[in-house]
Fold each of these.
Amino acid sequence: MILAYTSSMTESHITDWLLDPDHSDPSIRWQVLRDVLDAPQVAWQTERARVVSEGWGARLMAYEDDDGQWAGGAHFPAGFRWGDEEGQPWTSTSHALSQLREFGYEPSSVSARRAVELIGVNCRWEHDNQPYWEGEVEPCINGNAVANGTYFGVDMSPVVERLVGEVLEDGGWNCEIENGSVRSSFDTTINVLEGLMEYERATGGTRQSQSARRSGEEYLLKRHLFRRLSTGEPADRKYLYLSHPNHWHYEVLRALDYFRTASILTGQAPDPRLAEAIEHVRSRRLDDGTWLLDWKPPGRVWFDVDDGAEQPSRWVTLRALRVLKWWDAAGGPT
């Protein structure tokens, strides 16, 4: 039944691959149906409902500790020490919640409501033992917490208010603000923007949070999503890599997916300063219509959701297809 919603014969092999019931996952399939194929709402909602009971969503929820946490910690697993392993582990509570949100795990499900309640009671940030849903001090972590908390029905208004008060003079945010940083970073800014957008989608936002969101957007747009304002050179070559899962890392496809979401929510047309990043993503498409996973952050995970670097990625392909569809439908430059 799912395969009946493919949009055209020329693209059908790509959507067949994305929707493959034997190798794909409900968390990808429902988003393909909604965002790429414009399937009827009942079709993608039915597929999304499966995330709770099967596939990666159910599998990740099964790793939850009895006290509601994952791996015994808020942002890091219990007992983690830097230098003991390659990279940063991605198995703790904050990263599990981010993946469940990306999967589209139903916030109103019994399992999600139970997790939210237990996290509120038992989970504390490593920074200074702050209760999880009250946030900590780093804007990148707090932006992510706002996105996750709001998605799962928690009132994150106090953390949003803190983030609004931490906008730097150049328009964005930096996790080193507590250490005196006065220059924004791409990585921190995208995490905060995603949190503010989720908050605005759920509550309408406040005048102040909307203004802060627009300020952060302008920070990225002035830099065409990846260039230094001072020299015009790429701020970091990795910003041009197509990666997944992103965790706290910035890259242009993540930013474009954010701007797509913001445009749909606010009704604003795509900004022409996105064109260079759009054409970079378009240029990376393979002859078979898919996109490769260039890189994924090193570190411990519960399980992989891609086939590995330099292999076609369903997640990257899904995001690229819906971003290009949005851009082209709005009449952006090609």
Note: Residues 1-10 have pLDDT under 50 and may be disordered.
Amino acid sequence: MTPQKNMSGQAWAELVTLSVIWGGSFLAVEFALRELPVFTIVAHRVFWAMLILWLVVAFRRLPLPRRPGIWGAFLVMGILNNALPFTLLTYGQVFIESGLTSILNATTAIFGVLLAAAAFADERLTANKLIGVAFGFAGVLLTIGPSALTGFDPRALAQLAVIAATLSYACAGVWARKTLSGLPSEVSAAGMLSGSSLVMVPLALAVDGAPRFDLSAPVLAAMGFYVLIATALAYLLYYRVLALAGSGNLMLVTLFVPVVAILAGSLVLGEQLSPHALAGFALIAAGMVVLDGRLIRRLARLCN
């Protein structure tokens, strides 16, 4: 396992900033859904962010991949990491609270550990990982409640859609490691968004019709934040934090994002989450702490 880096002040600042941005994206979707359908929201997100990132690539004069297979890999990555999960998450927010969506979205790390162990020899399941995964799944079951598994009403289906989105994210992580290693991060992000745009723009036009632009100021602001800040800038910031802090520390973003989303949903929208949802998040968070391992190792040193 790669040793985890010590966090500098700059790394902490950028990690918290990324958490606030992604946490705020759930609130932005709530506003966008007031006037726009699901596919159109996702198409706007990936298309405009794609253009911005290709401008960044051109400005930095980064080399473009020449192998045709890479562009096919971008298409698959765009589906797994953008088109499918963005659509499922946005659909989920039609029926459930933004804070609850963010809690269930936090299980990406849990599925990521399982799929990485299945795909890579150097990612075997240790005792800590198994315990962390068990905590995570217990948290999911507590959060969604037994009714989501027995009665398929719109709310239950929305929660299961969000879980499916996290599984797609985890698959994307495996796919990226297998096919996109060694590329500049800006090129990978722009190529991925190109692949998702090829899927989402025609789909949105076919299902939702021509996009409307006579939107209210709050919805325009939400979409601007969603596209410019929570997608284009966030991807650039994500790779900066990864370089500064390492992948182990980057897992902390997964813990912080639901906290931001829950607070934003409560303060701005008046959302109130059930006690079992908050308790489920506590279990999911505990699972990620166990997966990370640092706090447990520190406590063990203090006890010895």
Note: Residues 190 and 248 are 24 Å apart (CA to CA).
